[in-house]
Amino acid sequence: MFLVYFAGLVFLNIFLMWFFGQSSRFPTSAYLQMTNDLAGKTIEEQYSFVSELYEQIDAVNKIDYTVRLYERSPEDSARLSNGEYKPIFDKYSQVYKDKTYLNYTKSMNSEFAFLKTINNEISAVYGYEDYLNEIQENAEMLSGISIFNKEGSYTSNNIKATAKAYEGMSGIPINYYPQKGIVTALEFDISDVILIFIMILMSFTLVREEKDNGLLYLIRSTQRGRLHTAIAKAVALIISLLVAVIVLYCTNLIYCNFTYGLGDLSRTIQSVPRLINSTLKVNLIEYLGLYMLTKWVAATVTGLWILFCVTIAKSIMTGVLLSVSMPLVHFLIRAIIPATHKLNVIKYANIISLLQTNEILGSYRNLHWFNNEPIQLNLVETVSGIIYFVIFISMFLFAFSKMQMVTVHKNSFSLLSKFKKDKIYPTTVEKQEWYKLLVMNGGAILLSVIIIFQGYSAFTSENYIGADEMFYAHYMKEITGKYDEESRDFLIKESEKFAPIYYAQHKLACNSITFEEYIEIINANYSLSIDYNAYSKARNKLYYIKENPSAHLVYETGYEKLFNLNDGKDVLASSIFSAVSIILLFSGFFTMEKTSGMKKVIYATPLGRNYTVKIKLRISFILSCVVGTLSMFPKLWQVGKGYGYKALFSPLMSLYQYNKADSCIPIIALIIFMIISRILACYLMSCVVLYISNIANSYMFSVMINSCIILFPLILYYMGMDSFMYLSVYPIFDVAKIFTEKLGVFIVRSYYFLTLSGISIFKDSIKEAYHVLK
């Protein structure tokens, strides 16, 4: 089972890396495409390529600002477009109009921010020689200033040491690639947390299991059962941690290579902006080898502390709390002491700093020593690592060899025993089941995390609305509803401001002006021309209304986003979020009764079988409603904030994608149907999870099996394996889009039939399986 749990932690690490990658500022595909675009180019060609892209998006951003300004102040907009920004309009106005500037992301703001980031990165490494010269020049300049040149002071010694460290770095070849992939793989903080949990898992496997089943006392009574066994366990932990570090961070690198791109691994580490301060003369492959070894040493030190804590603890909970206590204390020390403080040696000589491998190898830093002599960071980390290693391994060997080991029930927490007499116990089966799920199984904490995360996702989500969309929204919101005389009069009145555009079109049609002269007139009224395009798009809606008299005029952009009609992956992300939530909530709902022996007690009660299952299914349905609704909340909030919900009760057929819909079905009906579909999909997943939990022997095993059945198909579909969509719950989440397909109603009915049938089958299977006492 150790390998199963270990694989589960590694998978969890990759899943969390993917999960947090979805909420990053830029799409992962942007980095991967940029990496591919820069491949095979020299640093000069790379710099020129990125500079041209950044110049273009910067110009487009200024044009967009000018066009947006037109709505508030036409005079200022015209002054910019015909004055300061005229060269930009002449060169990039067509690019802005055609939207050919979106090479890596889906919005102008995102494209600008992404290319600005890339431009800053490549500018930093492209100017590496200038950076080295600046270090030497600063050293000479500061040495000549009296306040920095006090002989024997820390500042003076640090200036000299830094200049000397970089003396031989000139001439290092540079070849840039985006650093996102390599930095994410090596500096994903959750990987260090997962590594600590792997250490705890190893320590429990080496000591705790034998301690709980009594085998450890037999082993210690043998001739070589104490010190020799302790040494063997320490060596086993150290070797296992080497394998764990390699597997964990190699999977990080493999994932990041396919997701972001790592670039050419034979390039020097100074080609990575994050590692530009390093004084190591190695390439990335050699650096990764040093990284793994350093991380292994740090993990060994931390692992020995955890092994000691697990050895002396009387209960599992006490062992876990002791194990994480010192890392937490060291984390606080590291956070409290500033990097420039005289006690910064204490800040860096701790376990958390040992785990920050890139900080040790990928940078150059001197620390303040007590005699004003600067000391290098890597030397402090090395000495502190050796000291911690000697102390922790000595503590473990002594504890294992000399201490009397007393254990209590493996699921108890003795610190809470004195409060049991004041505890109020549930008085009904339903209250008891809620208590077991929310309190004993940690469901309340998980639900709190889910609600906070979805709320954060909703309130921090952004809508990029371009100038053309702003103008279009202005017209559509004014004429929303059934087309009538008021709407017609509004459109006629608005058309009057486009007289310069109509005049230029008429002149061009009569051959009174050349096409070049026509373009010059349009550029002189560029903001007005963007406004005219939006007006034309709104007016063209009348042709659809003429063909479908029952339809209304509706501002459709927000609804298209809500119903996933533009091939977005938001629905896939929300289905994965729901699957993870359901798996973590219910995987232990039945297994906890098996492992604690309470199943036999429940069977002996009058309402112990059918009624208990009935209550569990009722609770799972209620929480499925919560999770299903929460999965829709961020998108509902984002669309409402950016586009609004006007015309909710207009016919659904007002959206041209649903032109076959019945005229009596309003738009809000489809929104409600989407929420109901997600609730049913979550309930189906809940029934599957409960069934697996019923037949599984442990919580972790239940999580692993449920992940394989429910979560893996969704992830494989996300990775581009489209056939796995049909083995997942994704289609139920995406019913709004399915309705737009040919035979969409039939397909949705089929999915609903399969969903309801699956719920019925698994509910019956849960009841049958729960009657079998094992």
Can you count the helices?
36
Rg measurement, Å = 32 Å
Helix content bin:
over 70%
Overall average pLDDT: 82
> Strands of the biggest beta sheet: in what spatial order?
1-2
Number of strands: 2
Class from secondary-structure proportions: mainly alpha
Low-confidence segments, given as residue ranges, are: 406-422
The geometry reads as flat
Biggest beta sheet summary? 2 strands, antiparallel
Q: Alpha-carbon distance between the termini?
A: 20 Å
β-strand percent reads under 5%
Describe this structure as you would to a colleague:
- There is one protein chain.
- The chain has helices at 2-22, 28-38, 43-72, 74-82, 86-98, 108-126, 128-143, 154-165, 180-187, 189-213, 215-220, 227-259, 284-312, 316-336, 344-348, 351-355, 357-361, 377-402, 429-440, 443-460, 467-479, 485-495, 499-509, 515-524, 526-539, 541-547, 557-562, 570-586, 591-596, 598-603, 610-642, 667-695, 699-718, 730-733, 735-738, 744-770; strands at 366-368, 374-376.
- It has 774 residues and is mainly alpha-helical.
- A hairpin with a 5-residue loop joins β1 and β2.
- α3 (43-72) crosses α5, α3 (43-72) packs across α25 and α21 packs across α25 (526-539).
- The model is unreliable at 406-422 (pLDDT under 50).
